[in-house]
Amino acid sequence: MSNKIAVLGSINVDTTYHMDRFPQPGETLQAKDKSSAPGGKGANQSVACARSGAKTYHIGMVGADQEGQFMRESMQEDGIDTKFVGIDKMHGTGTAMITLDAEGQNDIMVYGGANQAMTTDVLKNTDDLFKEMAIPIPIPKSSRKNNLELSSSIKNGPVPPNKRAAFIAINIVR
Fold it and tell me: Residue 109: phi, psi to the nearest 5?
């Protein structure tokens, strides 16, 4: 039996602009190149887990947009189960704009979008997942915007050795 891992965390599309140097305030510069790739700290953790051979479930939110569809498909191509990735019709999928200069230094601007709109409602359908993984996590009843408090609700105690399971809680930071 392979390890089972559930990751709760951000899902972003990262767009990198390759520059000779960073622009000064008020200055406009031309990028040498541009590329987009799947990203987000939570999604990256899920990819690493899935590529290591673990059965990986991702819990998170994307927007009802092309970026959200791209991210769900990308995660699925990596073997990640996305049935717990919700779709937010009010906010776009999270994005990061990365500026990378010729020296390898970067600066990053992040739009949290659906990540920051996520509430504990995203957990309401995960009861069976946590039972399957033998993790005794009480799912919060209340839905507090931007305050998942999941990590503090995990009971102390090891997962039984006959159940190879892990739960990674990624903090959602505004």
Answer: -115, 135
